[in-house]
């Protein structure tokens, strides 16, 4: 069932130029996505320079991911209330200033605090990009817009590790943060000039919902992220990893019950899920977030520990994926606007699952690199066909006054999927290493990874472990594939484009 749309707010104003506005938003979106991956390359340098330990330096990434994921429901809704442009600009300013702060810190504790502010800035920005696309593009053009949005995510996964390697080697780890300053300033002024001020909607703020959603997501995400560190057992005193996860689930259940009972205006309008495509798209994007995050760990570990590639050269393995994904973006975007989404998204998810199954079969200590590039190229095809139809399908039927809320839900499920993927693949890799290399304990580092390329005697067992781990994200993607195949065709495919879309098309 489609959500009835509020026709007063669904019209695209003729004076709005959507494509320049989208390019301005994409610059900031690209920056925060690059920042999600660039820090991993600099972790060893940060560890050494700030005299930290592994357990503490992990929080440089964990603090960012937590501060990014937990507020997304709230910031999505807040964008509807105060305006997506204002919240996006505020988030971009916070992110840029926090980036400079990160580069200037001289202690690991201050770096972690600065990363929290970076994550908060990113959480303000991300839902607004989708909300603005929903509100300034007519339905028959959103596919192309979402395709650019998705291609940005694909290219960022490549640029982050490569740029990180170059900056750390040439200028020092501080520059992975300083580089955000000029990009952030340019992005701020472009968005200030090109992104339109959209009508706001008077929303009562659901304070109980805010507290419950933030607490539940924090407990769940923190428990999952830190589970591997504490061996899924006790953290301190009576607090355990599973206790936090269960508490998070219980609090989120209480949040959903409160949203259903709230007679005023809930933080999360459960009516959004009456739209079949919105619900299914959230299932699918959760599996995509899980799989893309999970796939990177065994692939990069294998490239460095077994093949002896540097972090930068390992990242270059992903070049075919990024190039093909970017090249397909315009074609797929036009296709999304004209074709039922279940065919396009289903094809993309099938390619993604197939590429990971394929990789699990070819990863061997002495496999020619070109044979590995073939499934990675197929992953590029998958990226080209997944992101745009899923994002477009999730937001197509949203009423304009709930665009931010819907975008917040969509991005929250994607981030939670990514956290689940990160935690699950870590557990599986350790399990497979213990099985295939029983004489080695302690996971990848115990196998000698921390000292560089592995000895020849253990390369086969390590390769087998990484290959077997890749089966998990492939299987999870099959759930997303089923969800995508259940999409229903949007109504605009049976109608001619409205007059309202003509000015936007011209721009």
Describe this protein's structure.
The protein is mainly alpha-helical. Helices cover 75% and strands 1% of the residues. It has helices at 7-10, 18-49, 54-69, 72-82, 84-104, 108-136, 142-170, 175-178, 180-194, 207-226, 241-261, 276-305, 311-316, 319-336, 341-362, 369-395, 403-436, 443-446, 456-469, 471-485, 501-506, and strands at residues 234-236, 239-240. Strands 1-2 form a two-stranded antiparallel ribbon. Strand 1 (234-236) and strand 2 form a beta hairpin. Helix 2 (18-49) runs antiparallel to helix 9, helix 12 (276-305) runs parallel beside helix 17 and helix 15 packs antiparallel against helix 20.
Per-chain topology:
Layout: H1 7-10, H2 18-49, H3 54-69, H4 72-82, H5 84-104, H6 108-136, H7 142-170, H8 175-178, H9 180-194, H10 207-226, E1 234-236, E2 239-240, H11 241-261, H12 276-305, H13 311-316, H14 319-336, H15 341-362, H16 369-395, H17 403-436, H18 443-446, H19 456-469, H20 471-485, H21 501-506
Antiparallel strand pairs: 1-2
What's the short story on this structure?
Helix content is 75%, strand content 1%. The protein has 507 residues and is an all-alpha fold.
